[in-house]
Predict the 3D structure of the following.
Amino acid sequence: MTDSESASRVDLVPLEPLGRGGFTDHKAQVLSFQDGEQRFVWGLHKDTDQLWYLEEDTAREWRAHVKQFVICPVPGCEAQLTTAHRTTKRDGLVHLNKDGGHTGESIFHSQGCAVIENWLSTNYPNSKVKREEYTNAEGERRADVLITSPAGDRVAFEVQYSPLTSDAWRTRHESYRRQRIADVWLFGHTSKQLRFDRGGFLSLNPTHRAVIAAGSPVMFINPEQRAIGIATSNEWIDDGSATLRSSATIEVWDQFLRASLSIAPLEDFRPSRRGIASDWLSQLYGQTKDLRDRNEASRRHTVETQQREVAAAQAELKAWIFKRRPQQEQIRHQFATVQRWNRSDALASINAYFGGNLRDRIDSNGDAGPGTNALVRWQSVVYFDLVAGRSREFGVREAFAAIKARGVNMGQPDAFKLIAIHLHGLVDLGFLDRTDGYGQYPRFVSTEEGAWR
Ligand SMILES: [Zn+2]
């Protein structure tokens, strides 16, 4: 290794950290993160296969060296490079012959991988850091950058600038899981991955949502700024009150309807068994877990409450049926022996049946002696022969036949019309349902209320 090469790596200084203090305005910080200016500053040394970094304002100084030793890091390109000095923009690397032929995204991708590799190898000299390494003997999946700790824990970093379907993402994520490798997905900061809606909130695509569903926050990388953006929200869903709540202090990476971008310097983070960690992330993970747990508990509570209510209603209905069935049998039996209706056992039993619970379902002709309501006889017959304890559908004709069968003469020429009006009244009161789709000849069936209460 020559002096110049070692100098170029040892002197490598991380870009100015982007901490919140750097920007007074979050919007300006996000705009800067999205800045698509393509800076090509990381190449590969062709003899050592090591990363090579071009410092700002050193294009002239390093040009000859670059031409001789530094090649394009985009896989499959390996083109010779040179340097470009710029007065308004930063100095950068360029292909010596304009035959790169690859997209802007592939430069961003290679620069992102270089930043991650440099970040890991600088901070974790005792770990093994490899770019595009096959993760198992079968070459099942190669990581953009794989770090293996001295204890053998592995974290794969994927820098994803190009579109990726959620199914393809799941397949790769599952493959890592099977190999016991924590995978960290850093989506690109350009518009193929990072988009905002008109309201300034993140437009998360199905792949981003799959990442969240699998238990990780959605993260973006800006290699230029050595910054990580994380989809977070301080507006979250609170199932307990079934509303959207917000808090200035609680930020979460899940359980939100819309998210913003929280940005922190890459140097704030460290690889971890979970993939990636930082003090800020620990807080975010904790807050999100609390909210998830709380929402889960409240969902469970809602389900349990509903189940209890259903069980209570079923038990109550069972008690009504137990009480009503013999009363109904008795009234129907007593219908057979009526002499004078207002003095009959049937009317007394019906008065006892309803007690204070008549709720207008049978009309009254006044009092029939102390404590006896002179309920209309034909309506009483209809109720106890066709509604109470019954579940069979019937129409006006069947009701008229039932009245006749009990020997009741309605004594009116428009009996069918009166019966129809009465049955519709029972529908309005909730004791009958219409079953005929409101056609010309109405059909009725008892409601639970009509049958048993
Ligand atoms: Zn190239």
Q: What stands out?
A: The pocket of zinc ion is lined by residues 72, 74, 77, 79, 95, 100, 102 (CB under 6 Å). The radius of gyration is 40 Å.
